[in-house]
């Protein structure tokens, strides 16, 4: 039908605009947060773009679900506002005729949400965690940013380097403060060089500086000047990413199904719920998009937002209950979706009944119309 083709074109164009808006907002918020972490030295500045990409993939299923829901809701609302639905119902067509084109529009999004939730998102989360852990395990000097004090990973040293050469080895104006074994040592040097020995261990050779040592109880102190001073930094460490067993977001579906634990079953509740959430929300948007052209259109949008928030939070609620062994997996993954399906059925029944001549609302509207006509005739009679 011409109507269905026009409807799908409008759904796709609306979805594109909604997706760009939501994606831009998400990217902006992530950029601010990740740049703040890079400024604080919690992540490497070279990893910012990669982490933004991985984090955006983590949020992509939710963005797509919201995109489909809002797109259908806006298109249905516009049809009511522009009185196109009046023509639609006057032609003898039902609101249920919207289901097929809406499902044809939403089917690729539902499949994409399932693929992202089952495989892509866990991979992106794992890569993001690997980048962060790799940075945490880097030697202290490699984590330094010029012109900023930086605490070592062990917490017993504070470094400051004014500048680092382009080769990444030559440094200028170095400050190192160390506290170990009830003593602290402060080293200042005009320049230095980072190098590795044959074993791969890393050293820092300082030139033209001084060192000050003192016990924490001030019982002894020492001071010396040096032309060359070599400080051991860290042994060679071949990085091996070790997955935190308490984190299940980065596990594949195969890993979740093998030797299932309560946390793994909780993660399954969330992942299985994503495509169901997408499907049910786009169907919910059809009856929920009703708006009176003569009244405001904010009420149904507010209800839609509240329903989405309640749906998403309740899914997380069931996931948390399963993760803490308060509810079994078999009794957690389906009841919420069934409740939403029943709500959708009732809303469709209500909207179909409103447009039926036998519905109480329709009877009340006819009675009110007759009273208005009678009142107008009485006024005409009094005027004569």
Task: Give structural notes.
Helix 2 runs parallel beside helix 6. A hairpin with a 5-residue loop joins strand 2 (157-164) and strand 3. This protein has helices at residues 2-39, 48-81, 84-90, 99-136, 253-257, 262-288, 298-323, 335-354, 360-383; strands at 150-151, 157-164, 170-180, 183-196, 202-215, 221-234. The chain is of the alpha+beta class. It has a 6-stranded antiparallel beta sheet with strand order 1-2-3-4-5-6, with no helix packed on it. Helices cover 57% and strands 16% of the residues.
Largest sheet: 6 strands, antiparallel
Name the poorly predicted regions. 235-246, 356-365
Q: C-alpha Rg, in Å?
A: 32 Å
Q: What is the SS-derived class?
A: alpha+beta
For the termini, the CA-CA separation is 53 Å
Alpha plus pi helix count: 9
According to DSSP, the number of beta strands is 6
* Mean pLDDT, all residues: 79
Characterize this entry briefly.
With 384 residues, this protein is of the alpha+beta class. It is built from 9 helices and 6 strands, in the order H-H-H-H-E-E-E-E-E-E-H-H-H-H-H. A 6-stranded antiparallel beta sheet has the order 1-2-3-4-5-6, with no helix packed on it.
